[in-house]
Amino acid sequence: QVQLVESGGGLVQPGGSLRLSCAASGFTFSSYAMSWYRQAPGKERELVATVISTAGNTNYADSVKGRFTISRDNAKKTVNLQMNGLQPEDTAVYYCNARRYFPPPPSNYWGKGTLVTVSS
Q1: Deepest of 11, 13, 73, 93, by most Cβ within 10 A of its Cβ?
Q2: How many CB atoms lie within 10 A of CB 57?
Q3: Beta strand 10-12 with 114-118: parallel, antiparallel or unpaired?
Q4: Structure confidence by residue, pLDDT tens digits, 23-55
């Protein structure tokens, strides 16, 4: 039973901060790249950030670079997204993703999402 359960979403004022968490179970967590995606109303799902390991190897969308930080704890099987300086355009449902491409067969798992609303 593979599960990715997001938490930490909610309503925040512009300029505020939130920390999202994703708890994983049912697969070999350390073998997967972990990412956060988001989908705003009327838009396609967008990759926000990816982390390969706790040693670094992170990538961010240009729109969040310098404001968001992704991290993972392989012992706890969690991945986090610290979001600072939130803006109304950050409003979206945020999804936790786990994926690998080899060895075959490829795997790609999704959480159900958590809503972040940035509004005054």
Answers
A1: 93
A2: 10
A3: parallel
A4: 999 999 999 999 999 999 999 999 999 999 756
Cα–Cα distance for residue pair 1/7, rounded to 1 Å: 19
CA distance 77 to 75: 6
Task: Grade residue 102 by pLDDT with cuts at 50, 70 and 90.
Answer: confident
Q: What is the mean pLDDT of the chain?
A: 95
* Distance, CA of 73 to CA of 67 (rounded, Å): 20
Whether the per-residue pLDDT at 88 is higher than 70: the answer is yes
> Across residues 116-120, what is the average pLDDT?
97
Tokens representing 70 are 């992704």
Peptide bond into 104 cis (omega under 30): no
The residue with tokens 């991290």 is 71
Contacts of 24 (CB under 8 A, 6+ apart): 3, 4, 34, 77, 78, 79, 96, 98
Q: Is 8 exposed, middle or buried (0-12, 13-18, 19+ CB in 10 A)?
A: middle
- Whole-number Å distance between alpha carbons of 77 and 74: 5
